[in-house]
Predict the 3D structure of the following.
Amino acid sequence: MTTIIKASGLRKTYPGGVEALAGIDLAVEEGEIFGFIGLNGAGKSTTIRILTTLMRATGGTATIAGLDVAREPDKVRQIIGVALQEAGLDAHATGRELLELQGRLHGLNRRDAVERATRLLDAVNLSDAADRRLAGYSGGMQRRLDLASALIHEPHVLFLDEPTTGLDPASRQQIWQEVRRLNRDEGRTIFLTSHYLEEIDRLANRVAVIDAGRIVAEGTPSELKSRLGREMASLSMAAEDRLAARQHLATIGGVESLVEITAGLMFRPLDGSRTLTEALAALDRAGIVVSAVTMAPPTLDDVFLHLTGRLPDEPSDDAAVAA
Amino acid sequence: MMVVATTPSGQSIQPVSTIDATVLLARRELRGLVRTPEAVVPGFVVPVVIFLIMLGMFEGFATSFGIENLAAFLLPTSVLLATAFGSSGQGIVEDIERGYFDKLLTTPLSRLALLLGPLAIEAVRMAAQSLLVLLVAMVAGASIATGITGAIAIVILGVLWGVAYSAIGFAVALKTGSGAATQGAAMLWIPLLYLAPAFAPRDSMSGWLATITALNPVTYIVEAMRATALDGWQADTIAYGLLAIAAVGAISLTLAFRALRGRVS
């Protein structure tokens, strides 16, 4: 297994002075699906833009298949395919025309571009709509075409930024199937960002979590979840009780990684059910009503919450594609 | 590690030359224009209509101003109006907003082609619009002192100016990605056109008006076109016109290339 994407000490400070990346190190193995998660503004998009040669880093290096993204961007562009959050499409062109142009710009001759476009349209189930204007495509269709346009030059590495955001469940399944097929049957390395942690959990071999410009955790989804301990306890309670509940629970030894969740509070009970019983007793004495209790193995959401203190946001409206 | 892009036959793919990329993008631009006739038609219709209106309005007292051939007299400003209708970078704004600009940037295409392709189509569009106005003027009885060659020269001057000026819009589009800002920049031509000696000769102006007119590049282009239309070949007047175009073009194209570089790195 060779490292195909490598970033060392990647930094980016924007002209206004904002430091978006404070030194990122990444190593993605050839043939794996690598998940990259983080809150909006954590540095996800900046990292992808630098790796896909759309932006220059202000420090550090990044290489893809040994090619430096800053020094040999054109060679990098030939071996990577990119589908960003905004399905970048030309409204007045037809699906086929867009694919053919993308192929030509990558250096394919006319015949090869036409042949590959037809094949890809078939692969993403857009053959029927191939000669319709893109302005009339639904959100799901646009994403599939975007994916096809990232594949026209048969790249070894695929960068997918939020590939299923805003899609209905059926379209999402289709994309997941296609991503798995591209990886398993065609051996392509896939660098995937998503705010749907379930998606990352299902698809990714390894994951990195970025927060405030730094990588805060890295490993397989199982490794990350097991680092949090075997089980997490969730207590549901009224919103007005939470502050008091936090104060009481903070005094109990064995209550770890206490965070607020939508329904109430969540923590890792160091001593399993003993800690949990103590916690419930303390809350009961304080007159706080706990409406539900669950003990469950941690999910990536829990991992994320633990690392960053929040759950990933929905992407902003202008990035979501109407289904 | 040998990781190379290949064609179906297994040969490695070479990136496209700047010229080929420019042609591909120009064709795409043209295709987009053809498919949005509502964006293209005004550029053909408005200058012709304005020409005909002015022809009708001034017919009565043209001779009292010493103008023998009104149609030829009005040709320069009408051609300039025709070359004011271009995309002025709006296509780029749209591409940036939709994310298509980024999609293009993920290919190894020559970044220069992103500017040259659309500019080439600007020229084609402006030439077509000017030729239509010319045709209408000829039908309306314009007699050009320098004949057909002169008429073509007038159109060429107009198109060169049109592209040189339009590059400002491209610069703003690339720098800001904002449709409103790009539109605003393009609108600057209105005062420029009206502050040129469209109707009164320059020596009849005085004071601040004379100064502004002397500083306005359009002044020299109008004078070059007018001389060619009414008086005959005047090398020095034409030279001043070309100089004005070159000066504005140098500035606008520099700004446009700088803005392009700023966006793609």
